[in-house]
Structures are given as structure tokens and as C-alpha cells.
Design goal:
The protein is mainly alpha-helical. It is built from 14 helices and 4 strands. The strands form 2 sheets. A two-stranded antiparallel ribbon has the order 1-2. The protein has a two-stranded antiparallel sheet with strand order 3-4. α5 packs parallel to α9 and α10 runs antiparallel to α11.
Length: 428
């Protein structure tokens, strides 16, 4: 779904916005540098997942007796209220709050009193962030899987309708052998279909609950029911080792993007083919004008900018995956603030993946083949390999058949060039 904009709403004075870690008086440059864009990313994307996790945590605390039933109900109500405000664009995370976790806890404490001070019992911002990002990542993986499946389906349907139209096949960007428009498009459809098992495998790895691991060492003296909170959030299992929970931050995001990269790399390769096959020199394929842009100086231009951007975004997506991987390489076990820098790249990469797939789901069904141009491009050179195998079928060894067909072809080419030169000499 698209997220509502985060709008300005009245907030308490900055003086009342103490850090969850109890600090204050930070140099403004230090605060701005260390907070970065975390507050914005939480406010725009992550808050619903933090709320979902907090609801599960509050219910678990009530179950084990840390909260009374009434307190549990109050927290459920308060969290639902925040969720409604956020969806209406009326809940904002302030830079001074650092992140969404602080904004949520402060809102509850300011409006509902002492119960707001109890919601953090048995957890740290480390496992809060882990859980929030994990829930977001699972949603994104499943969304990309669904979109890749939809794209495969529309590509398969369009390929079937174009299967009888011949098309030159290319290797090394040079004409190679005959194929059809349908077979070309179906190749991409097969790839997008194969993205499913990879994305499912990534989801299986990520589908474990880190909440309750706290700062990476668990909680002594408090018997948290992590299986209960896992079930409330929809996780299939608990991530048992609390130190592994912390170790998986960044690692799991990297796994998610590696799985998403398969359909996105295919999209970038499809984009390159589309740029080649829509240029005037080939003019094999086209899309309706709603998919092309123009020029500010050349009135005749119809540009397939979407495929240039798509080709670039394949590389941009890969750079974000590498950014996360490079950030976590060499980090020791335990939490490191470096990990905060993986969040923005992860969110932006997920956005690129879903927007690219949605665009192609719209464009591919409207793909048109210029049949006359395609049939006119089915020239003799495309069939030389077929000549080789006719000779093989007649009993020649392959290598002799290859040499014979090659010699015959280039002899014909030379004869045609000589005839053309002679004609030009006569008319010149």
C-alpha cells in the first residue's frame, strides 16, 4: 500500500522529549548526524510494524503478569489510536525523538500515564528495531513474490498471443538465429516465475521472531513468553539464540535483497532489449504513447525513458544491496550503530523493486509487435546454422558441415557485394 504523508501535528515542547537512554544536552550537530534519516524512515514506513510488535509485546507482558489485564487493554487501545493517527497522516516522529520507538512510548506516557513507562519492560530498542524491520522485510518479500508472479502471468499471456511472429535472435548484440517474439518474451516470463522459490526461501529464513532478545543477551529474571509474541505477530518460530538475533541484523536484510535481485536483474535486462527493439533502426516493438516521453527541443521524439530508468535502477538496486553487505562486513557480534545505516538502503531498495515490477505489469500486456518490420528482418544470415544441420542430417561430420556452410555463406555475401559494386559503378 502507499503510505500517507507524515503531517505536522502539535507536539509537546522539546524539553519534555527526553531520550529513552536518559541523555540530554547533545550537541545539535551530533544529534543531527547520529539520528540521520532514521526518524523520517520510521515515520513514513516502519511505524505500523513497530505498533504491531508493541501490541504483541504488551499482550505477552499481560499474560505473564508484568501488566494487569487493564493495563494490557489500555496499551492495546493506545497503540491502535497511534495507528489510526498515522494512517490519517496525523502522527509525526520528531528528529529530537530519534526514532519511532521513542515517539510511540512518549505519546502513550503523555496521554495514558504510568502504563506508558511499562511497555518497554523486557525489551531493548535493539530487538524493537530488529522485529519492526523483520516484519517489514517479510511483507516486502511477499509483495515482490506476488508482483513477480503477476508479471510472469501477464508476460506468458502476451507471449502466447505473439508466438507466431518471427523475430531475429541476438548474441553479442549481433544477429544470430531465428526465434519468435513469443519465445523471447516467454524467456523473461520463465525467469520472473522462477523468482518465487528464491523469495520463498528468503522468507523462510527471515520468518523467526527476535523480540525478547533485548540487547542481544536476553532478559534475566523475567520469563518472557517469546513463542506467544511470535504467534501474535505471525512468525512461524522464535529466533532462539538472543546473540544470533543481533547478529542477523543487516544479514537478513541482505538475504532479502539478494532474493529480490533475481526478478529486478531480469527487469533491467528486459529494459535493454526494449530499448534496442523500439529504436527506429529496428522498430520491432512499441508501446502506446502513454508509456513514452518527449523532448523539450525535438518535437518528433518519442522516448522510452522508462526503460532507461529501469536499466539504471537495476544497478542502483544492486548498489543498495552491496551497501548493506559492505556495512556489515567485519562487524563483530553484538550491536553496532553502523547497522542503523542499513535501514535507508533497505527501504529504498524494496521501493525500487516493487515500483519496477508494478510498472512492467502495466506495460507488458500492451506490448505491440510490428510484424511487417520483424518479417522483413528475417534475412538469410539467421538461417546459416540451419544449413549446417541439414548437412549433418545428410551424414557430414559437424565440423565439416560447419566449415562448408560458413564458406558457402560468405561466398554468397561476397558475390552480392560485388554485384552491388558493379551496379553502383554503372550508375555512377
Amino acid at each position: 500500500r502507499s503510505h500517507p504523508p507524515v503531517l505536522d501535528t502539535p507536539r509537546p515542547p522539546l524539553a519534555s522529549m527526553a531520550k529513552l537512554w536518559g541523555g540530554g544536552g547533545l550537541h545539535p550537530l551530533v544529534e543531527a548526524y547520529t539520528v540521520g534519516e532514521d526518524f523520517r524512515i520510521d515515520g513514513e514506513f516502519m511505524l505500523p510494524y513497530d505498533i504491531k510488535a508493541s501490541k504483541a509485546h504488551a499482550a505477552m507482558l499481560a499474560k505473564i503478569g508484568v501488566l494487569t489485564a487493564q493495563e494490557g487493554e489500555t496499551l492495546e487501545k493506545a497503540l491502535s489510536e497511534i495507528d489510526e493517527l498515522w494512517r490519517a497522516g496525523k502522527f509525526k516522529v520528531e528528529p529530537s525523538q530519534e526514532d519511532g520507538h521513542t515517539a510511540v512510548e512518549q505519546y502513550i506516557t503523555e496521554k495514558y500515564g504510568e502504563v506508558g513507562k511499562k511497555i518497554h519492560t523486557g525489551r531493548s530498542r535493539n530487538d524493537q528495531s530488529l522485529t519492526m524491520i523483520r516484519l517489514y522485510a517479510l511483507d516486502q518479500i511477499r509483495e515482490v513474490e506476488k508482483l513477480a508472479e503477476q508479471l510472469a502471468a501477464v508476460a506468458e499471456a502476451r507471449a502466447k498471443s505473439l508466438d507466431s511472429i518471427p523475430m531475429p535472435g541476438y548474441t553479442h548484440m549481433q544477429r544470430a538465429m531465428p526465434t519468435t517474439v513469443g519465445r523471447w518474451l516467454s524467456a523473461f516470463a520463465s525467469g520472473w516465475r522462477d523468482a518465487g522459490p528464491m523469495l520463498q526461501a528468503a522468507a523462510k529464513v527471515l520468518d523467526q521472531n527476535p523480540l525478547g532478545s533485548a540487547a542481544g543477551f536476553g532478559i534475566n529474571g523475567l520469563d518472557l513468553d517469546r513463542a506467544f509474541s511470535a504467534e501474535k505477530m505471525g512468525f512461524s518460530r522464535v529466533q532462539e539464540n538472543p546473540m544470533y538475533c543481533g547478529l542477523s541484523r543487516g544479514m537478513f536484510e541482505n538475504i532479502a535483497l539478494q532474493a529480490m535481485s533475481f526478478p529486478i536483474v531480469l527487469c533491467s535486462r528486459f529494459a535493454t532489449d526494449m530499448m534496442m527493439f523500439t529504436q527506429q533502426e529496428a522498430a520491432f516493438l512499441k508501446l502506446p504513447d502513454e508509456f513514452t516521453t518527449g523532448s523539450s527541443i525535438m518535437p518528433q521524439k518519442k522516448n522510452y525513458d522508462l526503460f532507461e530508468i529501469m536499466r539504471a535502477n537495476g544497478k542502483v538496486f544492486g548498489s543498495m544491496q552491496v551497501q548493506i553487505q559492505e556495512t556489515i562486513i567485519g562487524l563483530g557480534s553484538g550491536y553496532h550503530r553502523d547497522l542503523q545505516c542499513t535501514k535507508k538502503a533497505f527501504v529504498e531498495a524494496c521501493g525500487l523493486a516493487t515500483s519496477t515490477l508494478r510498472l512492467l505489469i502495466e506495460a507488458v500486456p500492451k506490448l505491440e509487435a510490428r510484424e511487417a518490420n520483424l518479417r522483413g528482418a528475417m534475412t538469410e544470415d539467421l538461417y546459416v546454422t540451419d544449413e549446417v544441420y541439414k548437412l549433418v542430417a545428410a551424414g557430414q561430420p559437424f565440423r565439416e558441415a560447419y566449415a562448408s556452410a560458413k564458406a558457402d555463406f560468405f561466398k554468397r555475401v561476397a558475390e552480392k557485394e560485388a554485384q552491388g559494386d558493379a551496379k553502383r559503378a554503372k550508375t555512377g
